[in-house]
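Field: sequence (string)
Field: structure_tokens (string)

Example rows 1 and 2, in order.
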Amino acid sequence: MNLKNLFQDFNPSKFLVFSCLLVFSLLFALRLDSTIEWSYWVVFLPIWIWKLAVVCGSTVGSYVWWKNPHYRLEGDSYVQYKAMVMCTGLHLLLLMFEILACDTLETGAHKWLLVFIPLIVMAVISIFICIWAVKNERSFEMELFCSVNILQFIFLALRLDGTIAWSWVIVFIPVWIVMCVALIGVLYAIVLAIILLKSPDIIPEQRRGNVSSAIGYSFLVVPLLVFEILLANRLDDTNSFTFTAITVPLLMSLVTLVCLSFGSKGGNNWWFGIRKDFCQFLLGVCPCLQEYGNISYSLQHNDSESGNSTPECEKVKDISKLKKEPIDEQPKAVVPVLSIETPD
């Protein structure tokens, strides 16, 4: 395991979002099955933590932005700050929807069409943000998800209010279309990984990367499709599974997303005003992590003549960055640095 790549490619924003969604999905399923009798305001606690982190991160980042005008000239700081502001606006609309949904589940005081209005507005705005993100070479996963599901949000609101009496399988038609596209993408990733695996011109690192991507997308899309099919059948009373059992494939997809966040590059450096990569910021706060960032671990098994084997974990430094130096038994002071590219 190479901890250097683990630190460098880690995306803290995705890790927080998917972890909160994982916990919320489990609590919500248990609440629907009456396994727990908590208030919906408590069940939505992971969602509130997620939104609190977004508001705090945006507030601190904006304070640093306006307090230090010279920071605005650093690279693409203006684009990153603008992206953070737009992302915060979308999260506030999403927060409004979640508050209305939680209150409706708790008291039934609102029509679902009113509840979904912030989400529909968010989907419309996301279309323009996607166009802006393409022009400025920014990622737009959440915006793309909202924009392609705008019709699905309308169908859900009308079905929950009883305005339309369609079967849930028909209500989920926009989701089936999106999932078909996703399955085509997964098949393409698998075929591409197989072709590149047999190609002699591809380096081993690229082969492993393609295979890992294909496996990751498969564990993401296939369980998600299974969850949606089971949920539609459960709402149509075709099966009698509990919501907790139905949610298991969704939890598998969310766990996959949490794992993929450790290999997702990118992210906005202006959250909380850190103005640097999360890896460098973490090393600045905890310089001792430098030692572990430059170490890879390998497990070796030594078999003795009696047949007993003892696993040993050895710390092997990166050979490509080590230089042969005479052995010096005198202890040396460790100087903290802000990049794990530098060896110990």
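Row 2 begins here:
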Amino acid sequence: MTKNKRLVYIALLAAQAVVIGLLERAIPFPFAFAPGAKLGLSNIITCISLYTLSFKDTFIIVAIRLVLATLLGGTISTFLYSASGAIISLLGMFLVKQLGPKRISIIGVSTTGGILHNVGQLLVASFLAKSWNVMLYLPVLSFIGILSGIAVGIAANYLLKNVKTLQVFFLAKENREH
């Protein structure tokens, strides 16, 4: 893939992640029993990026999404929570993906991300509250993280298998890795 194509692809994925994140913010809160929980639909783009680009490029997409989403309607505290969750989630997803497609699917990678995102956010909340009691909320958020991770993984898997443009990048990355 040429450098220009790669940059355009990164920009498109980052823009899609921002738009999906903003749209998700506009959706009424689906988990009334778990304040702060959300579906994490922009992680569809993170999963696609992990499977079609390098870790560095995926990190760039996540960073762009975090900064732009904050500038378009976030606060410093939402940035702290989102950034901690996104970075821990991305690292975990990348490491789990390294197990290989015979051991874990994109759905498993996404589910790992869903759980770790909540861990990252609760670590920041614990730090800010100066209390580890916040971590008692982890089982509830983990359950939601598992459900949303499965949904996001299914969507990302569908897109990778059925969108021709993504298939080109996916197959190109597979060929580079073998």
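free_text_note (row 2): The domain at 3-175 is CATH 1.10.1760.20 (Arp2/3 complex 21 kDa subunit ARPC3).
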